[in-house]
Each structure stands twice: as C-alpha cells, then as structure tokens.
Amino acid sequence: MINLKYVYNYSVYIKWDRTLTQAIYQGFILSRQQYSAKNTQGITLCYWLSSDHGPLKVIIENQQAVFFIPLSAQHTANTLLAQANIKAQFNKVELCHFSGNECVACYFNDIKSLYTARALLEQAMPIYEADVRHSDRFLMERFIKGGVWVTGNATTKNGFIEISDAKLKANKDYTPTLTSVSLDIECNGDGVLFSVALVGNGLDCVLMIGEQQLQSDSTFEIDWCYDEINLLTKLQQYIINNDPDVIIGWNVIDFDFSLLQERAEALGLTLNFGRDNQPLYINKGHYTRLTLPGRCVIDGIDTLKNATYRFDSFSLANVAERVLNESKLIKTDNRLTEIVRQFNEDKLSLAAYNRQDCILVNQIFEKLKLFEFAIVRTQITGLELERMGGSVAAFTNLYLPLLHRSGYVAPNLGDHGLSFESPGGYVMESTPGLYKNVLVLDFKSLYPSIMRTFCIDPLGLIAGLNAPEQAVEGFNQALFSRTQHHLPKLIAHLTQTRQEAKESNQPMLSQAIKIIMNSLYGVLGSKGCRFYDPRLSSSITLRGHEIMQTTRKWIKVQGFEVIYGDTDSTFVKLSEDKSPEQCNEIGCQLVHHINTMWQADLKQRYDLQSYLEIEFETHYSPFFMPTIRGKKTGSKKRYVGQVTKNNEKKLVFKGMETVRSDWTEFAQEFQTELFETLFTDNFEIQQLHDIINSYTQKLYNGEFDRKLVYRKRLGQHLNDYIKNIPPHVQAVKKYKANHPEFEIKRGQVIEYVYAVTGAELYTGKNTLNYPLYIQRQLDPVAQMILSALNTTSESTQASLF
After folding, report:
1. Pairing state of beta strands 180-187 and 246-249?
2. I want to staple 731 with a disulfide (CB 3.0 to 4.6 A). Which of 74, 284, 404, 759 is the partner?
3. What are phi and psi of 619, to 5 degrees?
4. What was the pLDDT predicted at 768?
5. Contact 276, 269 (CB under 8 A)
6. pLDDT at 712
7. Taking the chain, what is the end-to-end CA distance rounded to the nearest angstrom?
8. Band of the pLDDT at 659, cuts 50, 70, 90?
9. How does DSSP assign 513-530, residue by residue?
C-alpha cells in the first residue's frame, strides 16, 4: 500500500508518493480557452488562474466537445456525418428530453467538427446544448465558480507556473487578491492613435506620439513614441513587464481594446498582451467577446449596470462627478475637437487629460468596490469575471448541471410549443389625494418566495405534469412536483447565504445575491432563455396577483383602506390622528397578522409551507398620490412621500419629474419646493400660488437659464437619424450646419435648450423661449398638485400668466 502524506504550505498542498511529486494549488480563474493543439487527440482546455504563488497556466488535454440528439435519430445522424466525413462518437447516456424522448451524446475531438456537424444535423433533427462551450461546460459540471483546487505536473516557467495533466475541483472559499491597471486611449475621429495611458499596479505613465518635450509635472512619466507602431510595441512591453491580472477602463472592451486591435491589424501587428506571449482575441457578434489569455478585462460601465447603480448618464464625466465629485480635465462638450487641438498644440495637457481618465476609473472601482462585486458575482454564478451581462447565462450555469443529474438535457427555445403571453406584475388602481399617514408593506423577494413556496421550477413542471396526483397546481394548467425540483432549494440556499452575508457585514455579497435572486423570474420570463415556458412565468406573476389581492382583502377586514399596490408593495391609509408611534405599532401588527394568515392559508389549501414574508417597509407622513395628467383617475408608479429618520425629514419621489432625466433641473427644483411646502404642518394653498408666481418671475428674469438645459444621450450615429429626428438631434444638426468642424459620437450626452428658434445646443448665450418652458415644465407640475387639491385648471393658468 502506498503511504501518502500531505504537508500544508500556505496555499499549496504537497503530495508525495514513491514515484512523483505533485503540488495542489488554489487559485481563481482569470481566463478560459479551448483549442485543438498539435499532436493531441482531442480538445485542449487552458485556464489561467490568479494564485498566491503568481499566475498559473492550467492545461487539460484530450477533451471532447458534446451535444445531444434524440436516440431515435442516431442512425440518421451517423449516416449524415459519415457521408460528410465528420468523425463523431455516439454514447448512450441516461438523459432524456422534457418530452420524455431518450437522448444520445455526440462527442467530437475538435471544435470545428462539432460546429460543422451541428450545421449539418440541425436541418434533420433536434440538437440540444450545442451552444454550450466546452471550456464552460467543464467548469459547470464540476460546480466550479471562480475558485479552484488544481493539481497536476507543475513546471516553473518565465513568470508563471504551468500545470499539465491537470485536475480541477471547486474551491468556494478562495478569494483572490487581483492586481490591476487602468487603460485609456486617445485618438482622432478616424481612430488614429494619439496616446495611451496606464495607471495602477506601480505604473503611472502615458505613451504619447510626438517629439520629446520638457515635462513640468514630474508625478508621472511620458514615454514619447515616434509613430503608432512604436506606441503599440511599447504598450505591449509595458503590459508584459507589469503583468497585471486585470485591465480596467471605461467602455474599454467595445472602444479601447477594439480600436487597439483594429489599428494593430491595419499596421500589420499582433498584440501579444496576454501572458506567455499570447495574443489578444476579439470576436464581435451580439456582444463583443474579448479573450486575453492570463488576464481579464473589466469594463466599468458594464460593472456599474450589473451592480444596479443608476445614473442619468454612464459617461465617465458624469459618473466621476456624481461618485467622486471630480471632473475630467477637458470639460467642453466637444471633447474630440479639443483632444485633436491638444495633440497638435499642447501634448502635455493631452497627456494629463489621458492619465486623469485612468485615475478616475481606478477611484470609481475602489470607492464602489467593483472588484469585490465582480469576484462575488463569479463565486455565485460561475460566469467569467468580465462577463457582466448574461442573466440567462448565469441561470444556465447554475441550473444545467443540476438538470443533468436529474436525468434531463436542456430544452431548446420554443420546445414547449405554447404561444400565449404571461401577464406582468399586479398593479392596483390608486386612490389619488393627499394623506397624513400611509404605511407601505412590502413582500420580501416576492417572486423568489413564490417560486420557493409553490415549487415553481422547469424540471418540477415536467415532473408535475407526469405525476399530477401529487403536484402543486399552478396557472394555465401548470402542475409542479413537490419533490423533483431545483430552484426552490437554490433559492433557499441563496436566501440563507444572503442573510449570513448581512450578518457578517459583506454588502457586496448580499447585493450580488439579491441581483441573482431577482433575475430568476426575469430569466424564466425571457423568450431568449432555453428554459422559458409561459406556464412557468405566468404561475409566478398570476400567483403574485392572487397574493396582492388577498392581502388587500385581509387588510380591509382589519379595518384599514388600501389606496395603492404595485407588484409586491401595498400602501395602507391610516387615520390622520395617529401618531408616528401608533402607525409603527399598527404596521408591525399588520405584517404579523398577514404572515400568519398566509402560513395558515397555504397549509390548509395546498399543504405547503409558506415562505412569503411581508415586511413593514415605510411610514410616509404626509403622502401624495397624483391623478393621471388631465384625468381624475389615480396614476400608477408615481407618488411622493415624506419619511422621518433620526429626526430628519426627507422627501421620497417615485416616478416623478425630480427623478426623471427628461425633465430640467428647473422643473425638478420647482417640484421639490412645492412638495416641501405642501407637506408643512400649517400649509395654506396660497403658498403654492406664491411659489408658482415667484418661479415664473425669476424665469423671465433669466435667473434659471442654466437650469433649463435638457440632457439626452445620442442613441445612434448622427447620420442614422433620417425620418424621426428628436429635439436633441435637431439641436446638433443645426449647430453642425454652422460649425462643420464640430464632432460628436454615438453615446455622448447632448445638452440642449429650447430657444425662440427651436431646439439648440446649449451655449450659455441662447435666447430662450420662456413661455414654452412654462407650458412644458412648470405648468404640468403645478397642475398635478393643484388639481389633486380640487383647484381648477383655470386658476392654475391664471397664476402662471
């Protein structure tokens, strides 16, 4: 018998036997590749890891890619592939389709054969899971989500350790410490490079094309380059020498790296930015997929959006201003023109501007903990660090290996054969008006709780339909198995983990789990997801309708009026004589009563344990619910309330002008002042008229001119606007007609105003159309409040003019 001994040495376990020495490392996956290597019989997988011992290059050879077909189609497939001289291996597997048809696995020794076979066979038969990349499937089936244990034959290379004949195992406890560099490029309108800045991991430099100049600012280095080829060659050497795990930037994949690749190809260069002298790969399809072996590239905009941060514009200038209270060094609206001017006339200023953008990106990542968010998101979903979209891909990563272990392959889009649409969330009719006390009772994670309580699950639907006598009834003839399912258990695990994250002060983990849980319904309700079935999504939303309506009924029985409800929130009116303490006590009593009622109701009707949990969310005092503009019926998803915390009063706006980017700062300030006055204890309606008259007078005096600016993103290229030309585009085209040198890109935010001649770019010298602003910005806000207070439209108009 071989005597094995393990010795712990930091993050490495050394394993001896009589013939070999192997190291067991722990690391975190940075990049993944699959390719057909020379002198091998199958596909080679290459994973680069960040570890406490430096970069690890993990090689796994002789792999086979796979997809599945019906067992009944095997003979046909074999014949077609043989005729096309495509080698494949058919293996019987204990898997079947949701229809119950048995499946067979088709294995291929190279990726090209799989793609060719798929294109050939899909004309004659269903093919399942052919779109799952083997480098992803290999990790998915082993439940590897970022962190891994890896063992194999380790060899020390130049700057990294290569592990061949590797074996991988999930390591959920490993969290990496990543090194990063921020990258930003400057160029002209045709994409010709001017400079590239690199800041982070000990680097602080700008590579600038031009003759050397005396630099007054010695805090950073300018490396002067004589042309683009020289710049790109030096950039490659900087990245190789610095050897970061991660490169970050702002729109860095779609713009910076894509342009670098385009310029390199135009100049006949290969950008070997990866570790082990590996080249950069960029594939453009539905989204731009970038592979940089040994490193990952993380975009700040995508990461912010996936972390559910909201900004009226995700431009670096706007986000830096909002998050850091810092500005870009070029503040003009036409930055491109100024960049070209500085390159030709003031390269030192351009270098400082280029560098400052990198600094701002680094500071945003640090302050908002975006690295931490990206890491925990990978640890939950198994997606690549840089893969910031992909709720459907995350769901597939989590669900597919569980489905396989239950004996099923994943269905294709539309396999259910159903065409009806699922309804959206339940929204009650509102009762408009001004209220003294309103409580908001909110169901905690309503849709995930419904899925967990009522066993809603893709596999559960199939198993329930096959064994209806023990199933939980859904909607639209759906039935769900009480025992054969995965999502309820997954949601239970995520719920517990999130609670532990809250208790241990891990806000990024808690936020990432919340985002994943909230995306589960969206994925099942998306026709782009292979698991979409309208019976699943409608069983969630219609159950939500039932829960909201029943909850409203139970609250009414308790003697309270519900004035509004939206998806998972119920708004309860209390009498005006209640003190804040009494309102809080009633809120607590109501949630206890409702939770108890749901537990008893679901036990009695379905013999189910209820995971529904309503919480006392907010006490608004006062609270305002407007009417639909020009009507007497109440609006939806629009209200204003005042909350008091730590003896401080704060207005909360939902769906109102103050939180909408298509309203000016003037209208937002006006609305805020109206509500601050409306919510005072000794309010009199004349006070509102006084505010209206004051704002009108100041408007005509020009005191609000800077606050009359609209901001709108250019969603298309300027020339793409032909038939429907919105005001902000009209403003740009009008300005460009008189200033042909003016350049603007898709995605830039346009600042414009309404002048007497129509929409114009804001210059600070515009002759503004004040009556139009009163009509479109001031009057609608005033009428919304005054009409709700039973003030006629005529009196509103009289107060304005």
Report:
1. parallel
2. 759
3. -115, 115
4. 93
5. no
6. 86
7. 99
8. low
9. HHHHHHHHHHHHT-TTST
Q: Is the pLDDT of residue 456 over 90?
A: yes
Q: Where in the chain is the domain with CATH 2.40.50.590?
A: 1-176
Chain region(s) in the chain for CATH 3.30.420.10: 180-368
Q: What are phi and psi of 431, to 5 degrees?
A: -110, 100
Exposed (0-12), middle (13-18) or buried (19+): which is 664, by Cβ within 10 Å?
buried
Cα(526)–Cα(542) distance, rounded to whole angstroms?
A: 16
Q: Count other C-beta atoms under 10 Å from residue 706's C-beta.
A: 12
Instruction: Determine the residue type at 133.
Output: R
CA dihedral (770, 776, 782, 786) positive or negative: positive
Where do the DSSP E strands lie in 683-764?
710-713, 749-755, 758-761
pLDDT 10s digits, 215-258: 887 889 999 999 999 999 999 999 999 999 999 999 999 999 99
Describe the strand order of the beta sheet including 749-755 as a list of residue ranges: 710-713, 749-755, 758-761
When the candidates are 1.20.1440.80, 2.70.150.10, 1.10.132.60, 1.10.540.10, the CATH number that belongs to 659-800 is 1.10.132.60
Taking the C-alpha atoms of residue 624 and residue 229, their distance in angstroms, rounded to an integer, is: 63
Domain with residues 413-621, CATH architecture: Alpha-Beta Complex (3.90)
**Which is nearest to 625 in space by CA: 349, 420, 419, 440?**
440
Separation in Å, CA 372 to CA 177, 242, 327, 366, 368: 10, 22, 25, 9, 9
Q: Which CATH superfamily is domain 180-368 in?
A: Ribonuclease H-like superfamily/Ribonuclease H (3.30.420.10)
Q: Please give the angle made by the CA atoms of 591, 593 and 598, to the nearest 5 degrees.
A: 95
Cβ neighbors of 390 (< 8 A, separation 6 or more) are 383
Q: Residues 6 or more apart from 131 whose CB is under 8 A from it?
A: none
DSSP string, 453-502: HTT--HHHHHHHHHSGGGPEE-STT-EE-SSS-SHHHHHHHHHHHHHHHH
Range with the lowest mean pLDDT among 33-37, 328-332, 628-632?
Answer: 628-632
Q: Residues of the chain with pLDDT > 90: what percent?
A: 67
Task: Report d(CA 180, CA 203) in Å as an integer.
Answer: 10
Nearest partner of 328 among 428, 438, 186, judged by Cα: 186
b/e map 38-58, b = 16+ CB within 10 Å = eeeebbbbbbbbbbebebbbb
| Whether the predicted pLDDT of 554 surpasses 90 | yes
CA Rg value for the chain? 31
Residue 577 neighbours by CB distance under 10 Å:
8
Tokens of 375: 């890491």
Residue 684, amino acid: E
Please tell me the number of Cα atoms within 13 Å of 104 on its side-chain side.
Answer: 16
Which residue spans of the chain are classified as CATH 3.90.1600.10?
413-621
**Tokens 């004996």, located at residue:** 407
* Contact between residue 541 and residue 534 where contact means Cβ atoms under 8 Å apart: no
Q: How far apart are CA 330 and CA 194, in angstroms?
A: 16
CA–CA separation, 359 and 382 (whole Å):
30
The CA distance from 322 to 337, in Å, is 25
- This prediction has a pTM of 0.87
Q: Which two tokens stand for residue 762?
A: 């804001």
**Residue 69 bridge partners (DSSP):** 104
* 299/321 Cα distance (integer angstroms): 18
CATH of domain 1-176: 2.40.50.590
Q: What is the DSSP letter of 265?
A: H
Asked if pLDDT for residue 15 goes beyond 80, the answer is no
Please name which of 780, 753, 781 lies closest in space to residue 767, comparing C-alpha atoms.
753
pLDDT of residue 332: 67
The Cα 105–Cα 85 span in angstroms is 18
Number of H helices, E strands in the chain: 23, 31
Which part of the chain is CATH 1.10.132.60?
Answer: 659-800
Mean pLDDT on 392-403: 92
